[in-house]
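Lecture notes, part 5. Sequence design as translation. It can be helpful to think of inverse folding as translation between two languages: the language of shapes and the language of residues. The source text, in structure tokens, appears below.
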């Protein structure tokens, strides 16, 4: 932990701090996991020195919604999400999910996490709700194993579904659990992996999958357990389920969540494109977070949320990839670009769009706030050295370098980054994941997908 690094003469350091500071031609001193100093001509004695003269540095991106297990159900024109209703898509894809086992969980998680790291994401939340006879209860354990190998910060959402399909759920019975077994495993995972301290590499979130797919008691008991043990809560909300909820319980999903207490500063929802403007103020006043996932919204032709209006109401909006089956990549820089363009498309009718830099803060400091982290999300003294670097010496970026804050989304910088650092440790640099034999793992991952899924569904995988 005492090892020091000095990033020397970074061309720009975009801090995303409260003052929106950009440091030019400056150094960053890192001691252990923490940023100790930012300034010019810092002493380098005892430091490993990294040349930053061709780098723009940014805070590591924070992904607040994903489904890693779906990574092996991608690029399938036979289940083409844009051309199907959500319910029809679910009916086709859930039988595949029901065949996911522990090895698929492990390798699909490695695949997604590698993609995230290569594109500047240093902290990832995943909503893991795929529990079958084949996975057993080991899914999060296998994900923690993968995260530790790669060196990414991992917040695991332990999800579940408890309502039978015969009672209105969209989930096949092979993927159901009881509330009690779900809560018992949550307690086990929290005891085993949850670290609330600064520089934590692993945390657990209690995350029943979706209001329409579980009994109400699953949510109320989740709430009681999470608040007793001091962990956060997450679920899907406002992504097409409101008509079902109105028919089933006579109220919109957010009103239902408010009534049972599944709302507040320790809660965030995914998607929210069904939210109405009169609901923004409730989420703002209760400090309930929202993860915006632009890729599935655009693919599915769903409404694009009004981020400026939400922020004006006090909401904390963050950024998520969402499941690979409705995104087909785990590239959060690409999601950032898509979010920026989608907001810009609606700017005239909404009275203005967020800048590219505004969206960067959604993906960094807002993500940290959403996950309850005060030690990440910006590049400031005392915070963890979670960052990524863009090499701006490349010809395609000539003419853009006058504005480091707005560069990324504005100019479509969404390819592999030059360097990714997590807690002071370089985990990806110059095209190489430093902690693994990537080619070997890629072969193993492809084999796991082929043996466990493609051979069982030849008409779907082709």
């Amino acid at each position: 932990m005492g090892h020091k690094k000095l990033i020397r003469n970074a061309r720009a350091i975009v801090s995303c701090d409260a003052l929106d500071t950009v440091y030019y031609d400056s150094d960053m001193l890192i001691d252990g996991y923490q940023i100790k100093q930012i300034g010019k001509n810092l002493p380098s004695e005892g430091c490993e020195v990294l040349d930053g003269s061709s780098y723009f540095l940014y805070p590591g991106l924070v992904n607040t919604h994903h489904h890693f297990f779906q990574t092996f159900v991608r690029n399938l024109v036979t289940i083409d999400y844009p051309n199907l209703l959500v319910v029809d898509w679910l009916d086709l894809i859930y039988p595949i999910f029901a065949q996911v086992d522990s090895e698929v969980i492990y390798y699909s998680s490695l695949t997604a996490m590698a993609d995230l790291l290569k594109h500047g994401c240093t902290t990832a939340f995943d909503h893991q709700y795929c529990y079958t006879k084949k996975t057993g209860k080991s899914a999060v354990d296998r994900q923690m194993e993968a995260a530790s190998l790669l060196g990414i910060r991992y917040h695991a959402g332990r999800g579940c579904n408890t309502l039978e399909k015969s009672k209105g759920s969209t989930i096949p019975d092979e993927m159901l659990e009881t509330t009690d077994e779900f809560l018992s495993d949550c307690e086990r995972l929290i005891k085993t992996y949850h670290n609330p301290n600064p520089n934590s590499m692993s945390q657990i979130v209690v995350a029943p999958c979706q209001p329409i797919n579980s009994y109400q008691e699953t949510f109320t008991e989740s709430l009681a357990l999470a608040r007793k043990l001091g962990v956060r809560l997450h679920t899907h909300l406002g992504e097409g389920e409101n008509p079902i909820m109105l028919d089933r319980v006579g109220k919109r999903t957010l009103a239902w969540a408010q009534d049972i207490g599944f709302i507040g500063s320790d809660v965030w929802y995914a998607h929210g494109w069904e939210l109405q403007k009169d609901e923004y103020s409730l989420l703002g006043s209760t400090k309930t977070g929202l993860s915006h996932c632009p890729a599935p919204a655009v693919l599915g032709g769903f409404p694009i949320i009004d981020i400026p209006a939400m922020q004006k109401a006090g909401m904390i909006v963050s950024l998520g990839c969402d499941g690979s089956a409705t995104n087909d990549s785990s590239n959060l820089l690409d999601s950032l670009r898509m979010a920026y363009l989608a907001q810009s498309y609606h700017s005239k009718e909404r009275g203005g769009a967020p800048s590219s830099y505004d969206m960067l803060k959604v993906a960094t400091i807002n993500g940290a706030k959403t996950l309850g982290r005060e030690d990440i999300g910006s590049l400031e003294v005392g915070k963890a050295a979670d960052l990524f670097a863009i090499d701006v010496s490349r010809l395609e970026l000539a003419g853009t370098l006058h504005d480091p804050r707005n560069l990324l989304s504005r100019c479509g910088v969404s390819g592999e980054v030059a360097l990714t650092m997590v807690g002071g440790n370089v985990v990806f640099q110059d095209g190489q994941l430093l902690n693994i034999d990537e080619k070997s793992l890629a072969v193993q991952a492809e084999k796991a997908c082929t043996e466990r899924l493609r051979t069982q569904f030849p008409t779907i995988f082709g």
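The translated text above is only one of many valid answers, since several sequences can fold into similar shapes. Residues 166 and 173 are 9 Å apart (CA to CA).
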